[in-house]
Amino acid sequence: MAEHCTNDRQPTFSKPKVELHVHLDGAIRIDTILDVAKQRGILLPADTVAALKGLCTVSEPATLTEFLGKFNQYMHVIAGDRKAIKRIAYEFVEAKAKEGVAYVEVRYSPHFLANSGVEPIPWDQKEGDVTPDEVVRLVNEGLSEGEKAFKVKARSILCCMRHMPNWSMEVVELCKKYRNDGVVAIDLAGDESMNCVAYPGHRNAYEEAVKCGIHRTVHAGEVGPPSVVKEAVDVLKAERIGHGYHTVEDQALYRRLLENNMHFEICPVSSKLTGACDPDFTKHPLIKFKKDKANYSLNTDDPLIFNSTLDTDYATVQKYMGFTDEDFKRLNINAAQASFLPEKEKKDLLNLLYNAYDMVDSTEL
Ligand SMILES: [Zn+2]
Questions:
Q1: What is the CA(305)–ligand 1 centre distance, in A?
Q2: Could you give the CA distance from residue 229 to residue 203 in angstroms, rounded to a whole number?
Q3: d(Cα 292, Cα 112) in Å, to the nearest integer?
Q4: How far is the CA of 21 from the centre of ligand 1 (A)?
Q5: Which candidate in 19, 91, 222, 231 is catalytic?
Q6: Ligand 1 center–CA 361 separation, angstroms
Q7: CB–CB of 190/211 below 8 Å?
Q8: Contacts of residue 83, Cβ cutoff 8 Å, sequence gap at least 6
Q9: I need a surface site. Which of 111, 150, 208, 258 has the fewest CB within 10 A?
Q10: Nearest Cα to 93, choosing from 39, 135, 141, 30?
Q11: Following DSSP, what letter does each residue of 6-24 receive, concatenated?
Q12: Packed helices 82-98 and 30-40: angle between N→C axes, nearest 10 degrees
C-alpha cells in the first residue's frame, strides 16, 4: 500500500532535516489512541488500526469542517490524561527521529488537551484536574525525554485559537513561564475569517509576546486572503507565517515579504487535503516561492490526519515541482535560520547541517 512504500523505501532527501510547522495533536500514533482508549475504558467506533485510521484521516481534498471533524474522533481519548499527554510528546520525537529530523518545533493548544481551568472544557470531556499549565509541563517532559532517547532536538510552540480569544493571554503567560523549559514561541491557529480587530484578545497576547521577547508565528493566508497575512505581519508582528499560500495574490505584500525575507512554513500535502490550494500540485504557489527564492521550509502540519510523513511532502515537491537535493539543502538551512532557537543553538544547528551537507558556512569565511 502507499503508506508502506513511504515507510520502506529510501527517503527522498536522506540528510538531516528541520521541521517548523507540525501539530502535536495532529501527529499522534493510531495505535496509541487505541491503546489509551482501552486503558481508560473509552469506547471508540473502531477497534483496529486500519479501521480507526479510516475515521481519522482524509485522502481527498476536504472542507474545513470535515478536516476539523477528524480531531473529534480521538482528542477526547488523549485530552485530560497525564500519561497519554506525556506519551504522545515522547512518541512524537521518536517519529521525527525515524524521519531524519535533526530539529523540530512542535505546536499545540494547551487548552485543547486540558480538562480543568479551561472554558469551555473541550471535546465533551467531564471536568477533571489537568489544567493547560500542567499540559505544558507534561509535554515538556515528554519532549525532553524523547530528545535524550532519540537524539532529536525538540522545542514547542503554544497555540492560541482564533475562535477562543479569551484563552490567548493565558497562552502567552505560559510561553513566558516555560520559556526556559522548551517553549520557544506563540502561534495563532484556526478559522482565519475571525480577524483580530473583532477579537482583540489575540492582539493583546501578541503585544505582550513582543514586549517580553517571545517569538511569534501565525497561521495566515492558508485558506484566508492576503489581508490575513498582512494583519499577521503588521498587527501581530509575526516573524514567520504558517502556510501563507494566498500571499501571492497581493503582489505588493508578496514583494514586501520577499524583501523582508519573511519565512513561510509550507505544508504541501496539507495544502491539498485541506483544500487550501489547487489540488493540482503543478499549479501550487510553492512553485512561485521557489522561483523567487523565497524563504520557506517544508512541513507535515498534521501527519496523522493526512496519513503522511515528512518524506511524503519531500517526495511530492520532488515529483511535481522539480525539487532537487540542492533545493532541499537550501530550504533546510533557511528553516534552521528561521528557527526560534537562541543564537548559539541556532549556530550549532546550522553547523550540523553544513557538515551533513558537505557545505562550508559562508558566514565564517
Ligand atoms: Zn498548522
A1: 12
A2: 14
A3: 38
A4: 6
A5: 222
A6: 31
A7: no
A8: 36
A9: 258
A10: 141
A11: HHHSPPSS-S-EEEEEEEG
A12: 160
- Split at pLDDT 50, 70, 90, the class of 362 is low
State in Å: Cα 67 to ligand 1 middle.
12
What whole-number distance in Å separates Cα of residue 131 and Cα of residue 116?
5
Interval between CA 11 and ligand 1 midpoint (Å): 23
Active site residue 222: yes
- Grid cell for residue 101: 529530523
Under a CB-based contact definition with an 8 Å cutoff, are residues 232 and 196 in contact?
no
Q: If DSSP codes are grouped into helix, strand and coil, which group holds residue 263?
A: strand
Q: How far is the CA of 128 from the centre of ligand 1 (A)?
A: 28
Percent of residues, the chain, with pLDDT higher than 70: 96
Q: State pLDDT tens for residues 74-104.
A: 999 999 999 999 999 999 999 999 999 999 9
At position 236, the amino acid (one-letter code) is: L
Model confidence over 7-44: pLDDT tens digits? 557 899 999 999 999 999 999 999 999 999 999 999 99
The conformation of residue 88, written as its DSSP 8-state character, comes to H
209 phi and psi, to 5 degrees?
A: -60, -45
Pairing of strands 295-298, 183-189: unpaired
Residue 196 in contact with residue 204, Cβ under 8 Å? no
- What pLDDT does 3 receive? 43
Which string of DSSP letters, residue by residue, matches 35-55?
HHHHHHTPPPS--SHHHHHHH
Q: How many helices (H) and strands (E) does the chain have?
A: 17, 8
Determine the residue type at 307: N
